[in-house]
């Protein structure tokens, strides 16, 4: 099944079938990354422009790797040293970059809804690489792929997400994505960092289950997957947590918590990690920690998205 639109803006607008289609293609595309020369000519002549108005490492570079593996040309726009410093608007920037031949924009922006706004006025495809506290759809898709690879299914699982749920676009996308695939999501963190009632009602209208837990132990008990998130202090405006030390004491994942989760449950983190805050240093040695697998799968998922949006292709066998 193809995407219904030429954009990828959020998980909320994707069906279960569309998500499965992306995951299946990404899974097959991983083979290309293991070749002696990891490159195919499929997107030769296409121009992908990255507009990153916020810092990024994993997302930006995995998109660049994905594009180069598919032989696309790329340009990166970071705001500094550009006409933004002279007062140019986002929409004017988009129109000018369209004029030089852009085929697709990958946009990360601090304002929620910015990629959606651009999509209404742009002639080319838009991929949301994270907008404010709203969503980060490609991160959720790579998380789904990682869980499916490790556990063999996305249905009937208990997914525990721990941390700054309220301000995390990763959490918002993951909650929707895992529920759509048939799993139950439990979230935990300091009360001031958890969803409000309006958000809670929104999450409960999706296919899976959703529960807020004020105690970490309740959220992670018998969990199949534990996803730790960092505190989004840059989005708080005021101090919402007394100290990182106190946060770690009550909500940091430590070796003793391994007794509560299921045997061979996987541990995930979207990065960047603050060791000693959301994860104890010892957790790096947990044998079922899959953080670098997430990074690798990020390239494959983004290859699949670029391929589908720019060519409509959904069959791996048709690639050279």
- Report the span from N to C terminus: 22 Å
CATH topology of the largest domain: Rossmann fold
- Discrete helix count: 10
Poorly predicted residue ranges: none
Count the E strands.
Answer: 9
**CATH class call of the largest domain:** Alpha Beta
CA-based shape = globular
Q: Helix- and strand-based class? A: alpha/beta
- What's the SSE pattern? HEHEHEHEHEHEHEHEHEH
- Looking across the biggest beta sheet, what order are the strands in? 7-6-5-8-9
Taking all Cα atoms into account, the compactness measure Rg is 19 Å
Strand % is 5-15%
Tally of individual domains = 2
CATH superfamily annotation of the largest domain? Aspartate/ornithine carbamoyltransferase
Largest sheet report: 5 strands, parallel
CATH architecture of the largest domain: 3-Layer(aba) Sandwich
Helix content: 25-40%
- Averaged pLDDT, please? 90
3D architecture notes:
- The chain has 320 residues and is of the alpha/beta class.
- The chain has 2 domains: 16-134 and 295-318, Rossmann fold (3-Layer(aba) Sandwich), CATH 3.40.50; 137-290, Rossmann fold (3-Layer(aba) Sandwich), CATH 3.40.50.
- 36% of the residues lie in helices and 14% in strands.
- It has a 5-stranded parallel sheet. It has a 4-stranded parallel sheet with strand order 2-1-3-4, sandwiched between helices.
- Helix 1 crosses helix 5 (137-151), helix 2 (58-69) crosses helix 10 (291-311) and helix 5 (137-151) packs across helix 6 (169-180).
